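User: Can you fold this complex?
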Amino acid sequence: MSPRHKTILKGKYLPAVILVLIFLAAPVPAISEDTARKVNPFVRFYQDHISPVDGDRCPMHPSCSEYARQAIQKHGPVLGWIMACDRLIRCGRDEVRLAPIRMVNTQPHTLDPVAANDFWWFTPPAKPLEDQP
Amino acid sequence: MKISAVLVLLFWAWPAAAGPGQLVITADMQFSYAMQCLDKKQLTTAVAEFRRFVHFFPDDPRVPEAEFKTGLALFHDSRFREAARQFDLIIRKGGKQATASFFLQSRAFAAQGNTGYAQIILQNLLTLTNDQNVRDRAHLALARLKAKTSGTLGPEVLNQISQELDTISPANARALKKQEALELIDRAKAAPDKTPALAGALALIPGAGFAYCHRYKDALVAFGLNTGFLLGAYTAFDDGNPALGAVISFVGSGFYMGNVYGSISAAHKRNQARQIKLLNQMFDLELRIDPENSLYGFSLHHPF
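Assistant: Here's the predicted assembly.
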């Protein structure tokens, strides 16, 4: 390891690294759909400009960018970002043989919604009983 | 006398006055046609025809049955909200279809994702009835709903299901396969074979957590990606390019934590799949997605 690298890790950059870690560890509440699109320009840019040209190639449903958008909307930018990275690692690999298949636009897709990956720690709020007959 | 004779003749000739190409539909014909539609799974038509029957023949003794069949057709047509309303109407009127309507209304609410109200309906039935057969079926249905409500089949949920099944009386235990269900639940409790905490700890070495959960392709990708990001960041810092190093570190940290998160998640998913596979020996329990409520849970079908 070079002396410069040691300086980065131990010297003036250390507070910044700690701040980043604190930021990542901080709980962030869920945000609205509009806010999710606004705070995540990368997803918005990808969905608006790259994906239409690149084509619908993601074998999962929802697609990875849509999954990222939903995860950020549901769990905030930090956990949403982590869940999106997890999805990118898994996209089109072991999940294809393990998860259920659904037809989307006449094509088989592997069903892997956000709820399939947060069910073990996140309980959705109870639905109000307003639909009673 | 003449006028009376003319009136009698007119009355006698009335069906013929409808014309040779016209048909007078009787209650029997209407009911039979509605039943035929229901049997052929022409559900929308069946609903309309049963409603027509109730409208035109309100005094017919088959009206309660027609109302019940309307609810049944709505239910099978996945019009759960309308079905729930129809069954509510039948329950309020009482009669011999009321008990079955309680169960079906509960299932209609559960199908809409409103499992809370589905449970309340069954609990109301338990309060209202003393019939042991009905009570036992209600307990079984409540056990089913508890499984459905839960996002994960943890030990607590499985205990609650066991408790509900325990309340089934010995008289109906055999018919409702109580003992088999309890044994399966005990086996399901012991089914999880991967420890999520261990998967998370192993994932500190990128990919090891996925490999522990038998996801070898994911493990390879996680290892490759994280190693690449680490090397890239190191090289950027080493070459005196801290800005690039910071960007790579930021992106890489997401993938590193995603690898840890995914490993824990993979352990939970594997355990859950094993439990479902076991419980499927008795219940038709399948993973389902509720798009309306973004729920991920179980849909359990069992003849009640």
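Chain B touches chain A through 50 residues (CB under 8 Å). The first strand of chain B starts at residue 284 and ends at 290.
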